[in-house]
Each structure stands twice: as C-alpha cells, then as structure tokens.
Design brief:
Elements lengths: L7 H8 L4 E4 L2 E10 L2 H16 L7 H5 L5 H7 L3 E12 L5 E10 L7 H10 L4 E10 L9 H11 L5 E2 L2 H8 L2 H9 L1 H10 L4 E11 L1 H4 L6 E13 L5 E13 L2 H34 L1 E8 L4 H12 L4 E10 L4 E8 L3 H8 L2 E2 L5 E9 L2 E8 L1
Parallel strand pairs: 5-6, 5-7, 10-15
Antiparallel strand pairs: 1-2, 2-4, 3-4, 7-8, 8-9, 10-12, 11-12, 13-14, 14-15
Length: about 375
C-alpha cells in the first residue's frame, strides 16, 4: 500500500497555489493577467486562474513530481474551465499594459457539458464564425436541395452552443457548384480558402449518404429500412489545418424510403457532430493554453538580411511562442510566416503595429486583418 504521507508536500503545494477551494464540482480561484488590450489581459487572467485551479484536480504521481517540467502539458490536459468570473481589480501598468485580476469559478466537468464554460470559451476565441457545407445523397438523390445533414448540424451548433454561423444560403450557393464541392472533398487548403472567402473562420464539411438496406427491408411488412453514414471534418480557414474529424452511422425504418433516409441521416449527423465538437473544443482549449496560430504576410522584405531581422523582431513580441517561416519571395518582397501567439489577433496587432525592429532598420505596421490572417508591412528608416 502506498503511503499517502509521501505525497503530502506536493498536495499542500498545489493547495496553496493561489486562493483556491473546491465546492461540489466547482473550484473558486483568482487569476491575474497582463495584455496589450483589456480583452487580452482578461484572457491571460483566465489562463492563470485555470493553472491555479489544477491543484484540486487529481493528478498522477509523475505529473505531480514533474509539474514544473510538464506544466504546459498538464494545463492543456486539465478539464478545468472558467464557468463564470468577476473582476476584482483592473488598471494599467507604468509601461501602458492592461492589467486585470479576477475571481473565477471553474468547472471540472467536460467543457462541452457545461454550457456556461463553453460560452466563455467561445467568447475567448472571439466567437469564430463557422460555415457548414455537406454533400448529401439521400437514397440515390444528390440534389443540392438535400439539407437534412446541414440542418441537423446547424441546429445542434445554434442551440444550445450559440455558434456564430455563416448564413445557410451561402452554403447553398457553394453546394450548387460541382467544382467547389469537389474542392471541399479533395483539397483542405483550397477548401479553407472557400470558407475564408465566405467570411468563415471554421469550416465544417463532409458527406452524408443513405442507402436502402434491401435484405433487411424484405421482412418489414412493407416498411423500408435505410442506413446512413455521415463523415465530417472541421478546418481552420486561416491555415487550412484539420481541427478534427468524425464519422457516424444511423438506421431508420419508414414506409417512404426518402423519409427513412432523412431520418437516418439526421440520426448519424447528430452523432457525428457531437464527436466533432469534442475535437473543436480540444483545439480551442489548446489555443487558449498554448497560443493560437496567426497566418501573417509581410510586404517590403527586400533582402535576406531584412528577412532575418523581421523574424527576430517577431520572436521578440510579448506572448509570441513560436515563429515559423513558410515562404519568402525576394522579387515580390513578400514573407509568409505562422506565428503562435498567446492571445487574440487584435492583441497581437496592437503590439506589432509600429513595432521597432531589433536592428533599428525600420518598423513594422499592420495593413490588414481577416480573421486569423494578418497583413504587415515593413517600413524602412
């Protein structure tokens, strides 16, 4: 039998990490944050509150003993989430940064089962606009008007999760184009571009197919058995990266094959979107804990030396975790990079606009923002 006294120093340490107490399934703790904007400071305070709340979550011996080494990993894994909060102090530091302190209530339940926490997560992500486009074939009919799967997904995302959704009429126009539907099925980067063109930051796409189960229908006294398969994927429209994917099966019986098909597609769609939501939540939690990827295009980068200076300058921005060069074209003077940033796009733009480069050779200014895509320009001295 393992002696509990061996772990008491660690448990006491975690219990003293900030003011923190457990009450039923809730944890109350305090968090403080700094940022270039009030919203960014609030996000940092929420992350700080979650980190302090980890002390009341059951952790393995290895995680406890190596907490300082594995801190980011443990925070990402935690099921703690902000359900509600109140500001207890806010202001500005001497160097102009926003500072806020909050008292937060955290939920240990899975975040998608806790609507208050999930809504705060959506707000923290600046309510990403989501577009839903599904290629649907119901018992041999692949008319663009087939929308059972889309309607099921949209209803699920709207109520109770209150996603900010692109108008379904826009999706209908995409479905009417064979070329665009082929793109959605085969090229993630091009599919993400279609979503971005239509104002989406997240694109949910895939297929819904129903077929009559001939062998099963023979013994149903005139009723028809139809089975459906739904496959979904969610894409980050700024980067083209796959957020997650899911698939599900449904089966329904009805006297009318089309009705049975619609019912089976709706059943499978409900199962599939519930699975996909878990992947979306995990991705958003990871972005909140470890930084979101911002795709950046920078004009005016006319030499290799200047490119190196720009990369070094971006790495020096507060809360930038990583800078990854994607492409540089000396003729067009265009540099494309991905920046992993702890905070939102507006916070990053506030910090980088007018930023003096490390070499003193010039400054960087913001020339455009589109979702998670930012355009910058180098201004030489």
């Amino acid at each position: 039998m393992i002696k509990l006294c061996r772990f008491l120093p660690y448990l006491v340490l975690f219990g003293l990490m900030g003011y923190c107490c457990a009450q039923d399934d809730n944890i109350t703790t305090e968090g403080r944050g700094l940022g270039a904007s009030a919203d960014e400071a609030l996000l940092a305070a929420k992350r700080d509150a979650v980190e302090k709340g980890i002390g009341t979550v059951l952790l393995s011996q290895t995680e406890i003993e190596n907490f300082q080494v594995k801190k980011d990993q443990i925070i990402t894994k935690t099921v703690g989430a902000v359900k509600s909060f109140e500001k207890i102090n806010e202001g500005k530091t001497s160097d102009g940064l926003f500072e806020v302190a909050i008292k937060a209530v955290l939920s240990k339940t899975a975040i998608h089962q806790d609507l208050a926490a999930f809504h705060i997560l959506i707000e923290s992500m600046n309510k990403p606009r989501t577009m839903v486009v599904i290629d649907e074939n119901n018992v041999g009919s692949d008319e663009p008007a087939n929308q059972t799967a889309e309607n099921t997904l949209i209803q699920f995302l709207k109520d109770p999760y209150q996603f900010d959704l692109v108008d379904p009429k826009t999706a209908q126009a995409v479905r009417a184009s064979d070329q665009k539907m082929a793109t959605l099925a085969g090229d993630n980067v091009a599919a993400a571009a279609i979503g971005l063109q239509n104002g989406a930051e997240v694109l949910i796409t895939g297929s819904a197919i129903s077929r009559e189960a001939k062998n099963m229908s023979q013994n149903l006294g005139g009723m028809v058995s139809v089975q459906a398969d739904v496959t979904l994927k969610a894409l980050n429209c700024a980067t083209g990266a796959i957020i997650g994917s899911s698939q599900a099966h449904g089966a329904k019986v009805h006297i009318n094959p089309n009705t049975a098909g619609n019912l089976a597609i709706a059943q499978a769609s409900q199962k599939a979107i519930e699975k996909l939501l878990d992947a979306i939540i995990k991705d958003w939690q990871n972005q909140q804990n470890n930084g979101a990827v911002i795709s950046i295009s920078i004009t005016g980068v006319s030499s290799f030396r200047l490119k190196a200076d720009v990369l070094l300058s971006l790495q020096g921005v507060l809360n930038v975790c990583a800078v990854r060069e994607r492409n540089w074209d000396m003729q067009s003077k265009m540099l494309v990079v991905d920046v992993q940033y702890k905070g939102n796009v507006n916070g990053f733009c506030t910090k980088i606009d007018g930023y003096k480069m490390k070499s003193g050779a010039g400054s960087i200014s913001v020339s455009g923002v589109n979702g998670q895509k930012v355009s910058l320009a180098v201004r030489a001295m």
